[in-house]
Structure formats: C-alpha cells, structure tokens
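To the wet lab folks,

You asked to see what we're planning to order before we commit. Fair enough. Below is the target structure as tokens, and below that is the sequence we designed to fit it. If anything looks off to you, flag it before the synthesis order goes out.
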C-alpha cells in the first residue's frame, strides 16, 4: 500500500470564509490541490484566491440551487471533482426552550440539510471521477451529550449517521466517507450565541489548522484504508 497524494485533487470546501474551512482551503492549496472555496461571503474569502489554484464561490449551503451552481463553477474551472469537504456549520449554546424557532431552523438547515445539498450536488461528479473522498466535519457533540446543545448536537449526530450510511452505500464505487468529530475549536463559532470572546475555555481547544491537518491525513490514506469516524481533542501541554 502507498499513501495517496493530495496534489492535483479537485476539492470543494464549504464554510470556507473562516475557521476550519478557511484553514482547510489553505492547507489543501499548499499541498497542491485545486479547490473550490464555498461560503456566503465572497469578500471574506478574497485572500484565499492567492493561495494557489483556488476558485472562490459565493453560495449558501442551505440552497440546493446554490450548491448545484457552486459545484458547476468548480468543475468548469478544474474539469472534474473528486473530493468533498462538507464543513459549513453553525451552533448556539442555549437551553432548549429558550432557543427561538428561527435559530433552531437555521441550525438544522445549515448543518444537516446543508451537508445533504452539498453532497447531492457534488456526488455525481465524484462518482464520474471513479474514486474519491467525502469528509464531513461533524463534532464531538455527535457522540457526547451535553446540556445546552440539543438541536446542534442532533444535527451533528445526524451528519455522522448520514456519512456512515453513505460510506457503506458508496464503497463499491470507490468512494470513501469519513466523519471528523473534533472537540472545541478556537474560532468565532457561536460567539455571541452562548460562547464569549476571551473565554478561558479557548485554552483547551483545538486550532482550526489541527482539523485541516486531519482532513489532509484522511485524504492521504491509502485507498484501501478507511478511518470512518475520527474523534479529536486538544492535548494539554505539560
């Protein structure tokens, strides 16, 4: 067995304007991949275009039409598509009955349906490529219950189940599906929605680059190796 190369792979990354998505785009581009960077704000992705072969695309994962358009733009630019990194997500830390219906709906539509629409739009192209990867960035909340995260955790668990079912469904077509379940990450995720700037808990969190490195590790595994689910947490320094 030999390790796979990321060089010349064509990848879409959702949620690319900040945090893990931005770090993943930069890491992939520096490793020689060609990347469709997708997020709602094109302005916030302006710097990514200078990383290498990166196509910056404004699209909302909650819209199936937007995701079809974003995938088409990536394929038009690079000629094919063989890797999906479904990363876009939002959260809120709040007691269940205190959460507004609008906030709950937005979390479900972004985290779960956004993953569904991303994969549905891109999967025919990955199948056509003959072999590829789908990486779903979920959360430790998918496997560990916590108060104040009911709707968010439900969407993360649903992502894990979606990915697991697809891995079994798509194996015969040469497609590997991996779920990453990181713990807390030092980003602006949920700032003002139950997480505060400068909180001491940030010292116990992963960096976005840690998760980006995990994405590259998954993609570099020999084709015969499947991680399936990868839990990640911060290792405190001595």
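Sequence we intend to order:
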């Amino acid at each position: 067995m030999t390790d796979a190369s990321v060089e010349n792979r064509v990848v879409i990354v959702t949620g690319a304007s900040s945090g893990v998505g931005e770090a993943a785009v930069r890491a992939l581009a520096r490793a020689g991949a060609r990347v469709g960077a997708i997020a709602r704000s094109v302005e916030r992705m302006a710097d990514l275009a200078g990383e290498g072969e990166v196509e910056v695309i404004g699209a909302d994962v909650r819209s199936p039409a937007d995701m079809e358009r974003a995938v088409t733009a990536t394929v038009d630019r690079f000629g094919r598509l063989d890797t999906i990194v479904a990363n876009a997500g939002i959260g809120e830390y709040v007691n269940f009955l205190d959460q507004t219906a609008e906030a709950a709906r937005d979390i479900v539509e972004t985290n779960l349906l956004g993953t569904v629409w991303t994969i549905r739009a891109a999967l025919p192209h990955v199948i056509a490529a003959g072999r590829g990867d789908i990486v779903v960035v979920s959360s430790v909340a998918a496997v560990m219950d916590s108060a104040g995260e009911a709707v968010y955790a439900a969407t993360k668990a649903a992502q894990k189940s979606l990915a697991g079912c697809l891995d079994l469904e798509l194996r015969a077509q040469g497609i590997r599906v991996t779920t990453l379940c990181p713990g807390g990450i030092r980003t602006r995720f949920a700032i003002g929605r139950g997480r505060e700037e400068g909180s001491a808990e940030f010292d116990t969190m992963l960096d976005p680059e840690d998760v980006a490195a995990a994405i590259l590790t998954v993609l570099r595994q020999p084709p015969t190796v499947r991680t399936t689910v990868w839990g990640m947490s911060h290792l405190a320094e001595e």
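Structural context that might help your review: The chain has a mean pLDDT of 90. The chain has one domain: 10-232.

Thanks,
Computational group
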